[in-house]
Specification:
Elements lengths: L6 E3 L2 E5 L7 H7 L2 H4 L3 H4 L5 H13 L4 E7 L7 E9 L4 E7 L10 H15 L5 E7 L3 H9 L3 E12 L2 E11 L1
Parallel strand pairs: 5-6
Antiparallel strand pairs: 1-2, 2-3, 3-4, 4-5, 6-8, 7-8
The structure holds coenzyme A.
Length: about 180
């Protein structure tokens, strides 16, 4: 989906990404092991400008995804993404993921602000009632960002998923309308 809207957040804004937004910092950030440590799909293969453009295009055309770029007031290029996917109208549910690929932006409240804005839009504009995120238990920054954005922990999935080859617990968080 490519809704015509920008969502303001403290210190920046979100806007749905188009292929022309793809820049080298975005591609390099996705390939950075510190950034992609907990991003299964991203690190499964080396990202290139082409693969990232294909990803952006697929989400723009998909009726069940919205991929926003996260812009700060200081940066002309986006510094991260927040993505609603698996939007399921029948149940009113969706999944959400976040990645600030520019590490200079970590720890300033940007992640929680982006999650909160996208979640609010999903509830208010799409009428969804349950937005869900999974985080590896070692990813404390992600868990705290979702908690700060108003999410609550709903269940754990112990041992199903591998992190660096080792079975681990994924903690599932949800925001409810
Ligand atoms: C996870 C991520 C989005 C967090 O964004 P952020 O802008 O750095 O987070 P915020 O500044 O909004 O901080 C949110 C909370 O996490 C805490 N936090 C931030 N970094 C932390 C860290 N490394 N360890 C523990 N807590 C941390 C903050 O103190 C804050 O807590 P509070 O709200 O209780 O005060 C960002 O680190 C990121 O994109 N990481 C790489 C990709 C990733 O792991 N995505 C999530 C996959 S589930």
């Amino acid at each position: 989906m490519n809704p015509e809207l920008a969502l303001p957040i403290n210190g920046g804004f979100l806007r749905p990404l188009v292929e022309a937004d793809v820049h080298q910092g975005y591609v390099d950030g996705l390939n950075d092991p510190l950034v992609n440590r907990f991003l299964d799909g991203v690190k499964a293969s080396v990202q290139t400008a082409g693969s990232v453009c294909d990803f952006v295009a697929a989400d723009r055309l998909s009726p069940s995804s919205v991929l926003w770029g996260v812009w700060t007031d200081e940066s002309p290029r986006h510094v991260g993404t927040v993505r609603l996917h698996g939007i399921e109208r029948r149940h009113g549910t969706a999944h959400i993921g976040i990645c600030l690929f520019d590490q200079r932006c970590w720890g300033r409240g940007l992640g929680s602000a982006a999650i909160a804005a996208a979640t609010r839009w999903a509830i208010d504009a799409l009428g969804l009632r349950w937005i869900e995120a999974g985080a590896y238990e070692a990813n404390l920054a992600s868990q705290r960002a979702f908690l700060s954005a108003g999410y609550v922990e709903v269940f754990d999935i112990p041992g199903k998923y591998l992190l660096e080859g080792v079975p681990t617990t994924v903690k599932v968080y949800a925001a409810r309308a």
